[in-house]
Known about the structure:
Shape: globular
Largest sheet: 2 strands, antiparallel
Number of strands: 2
Order of helices and strands: HEEHHHHHH
Distance between the termini: 18 Å
Structural class: mainly alpha
Helix content: 55-70%
Strand content: under 5%
Amino acid sequence: MPVDPxxxxxxxxxxxxxxxxxxxxxxxxxxxxxxxxxxxxxxWATLPASLRLPxxxxxxxxxxxxYTLAVWxxxxxxxxxxxxxxxxxAPRTAVDSRAWLVGxxxxxxxxxxxxxxxxxxxxxxxxxxxxxxTFVCWAYCSTYVPAWSxxxxxxxxxxxxxxxxxxxxxxxxxxxxxxxxxxxxxLGLPALYAALRD
Length: 198
C-alpha cells in the first residue's frame, strides 16, 4: 500500500524518536545497576547487590536521575517512533494510514489510561515528575484526581471516533482527528500530522 512520505524535518524527528527510545531503554537499565529499587512502584524489579555498581544515583522525586530521563525520553520519543514505524511498516501491510496515524494512538491512549487508572501501583505523594504519554494523563498521574482520568478516557474516545469518521470519509473527520491530535499530545502527534496533511 503506498504511503505518503513524511516531510524531511518530520522524517528526521521520527528517526530521532527511535533513537530516543533506545537511549531511554539504556538509561533505564543503567538505573538498575546503581539503585536497589529504581522504581518504587515495582519493588520486586531489582538486581542482587553483587550485580550493582558501588554508587547510588540521586533521585528526582521517586526515581533515580537516569530512570527519570529514560521515562521522559520514552514519553516524547514514542510519538515520533510511531511515525517511523508507519513510514517503514505501513507499505508492507494491509493496514492503512488511518489505523497507523489515528487508530493506533487512540488505542494506546485507551490502554495506557486504563493501566494508569486501575493497575499502576501509585506512589505517594503524587509528584509533578509522574510520567504520562499525554498531558491530560499527566494531570491524572501527578494528582490522582479521577476527573483527569475521566477526561483522558473522553480524549481517547474522541480518537476512536476520529478513526471511525476517517474510515467513512465523513466531513468532520479532519476536525475530529486534529482535535484528538492536540488533546492527546504528545502521543497524539501522528493524528495531528494526519489532520494537517489532509
